[in-house]
Write a structure and sequence with these properties.
alpha+beta; two-stranded antiparallel sheet; 4 helices; 2 strands; Transpos_IS110; DNA binding; IS110 family transposase
């Protein structure tokens, strides 16, 4: 596939793939999916990545109104 060819052709992305695949439970497909969807991995902090991935709860509030935290 296109992502496979792209990762194989880029030493930087190949290195990211190897690092991600070294995590228990993360295989080649998951690593390549993460590289494709979150190319920022490794260049921004964990909170920013959590926000990009939609995993960080944010409280909706404005002035005196307070909403609920949602993921």
């Amino acid at each position: 596939t296109e992502i496979d060819d792209t990762v194989r052709g880029s030493p930087i992305w190949r290195e990211k793939e190897e690092l991600l695949a070294s995590v228990p439970g993360v295989g080649t497909k998951t690593a390549r999916s993460l590289i494709a969807e979150l190319p920022e991995l490794g260049s921004i902090g964990r909170r920013e990545i959590a926000a990009l991935a939609g995993l960080a709860p944010f409280t909706r509030q404005s002035g005196q109104w307070r909403g609920r935290s949602r993921i």
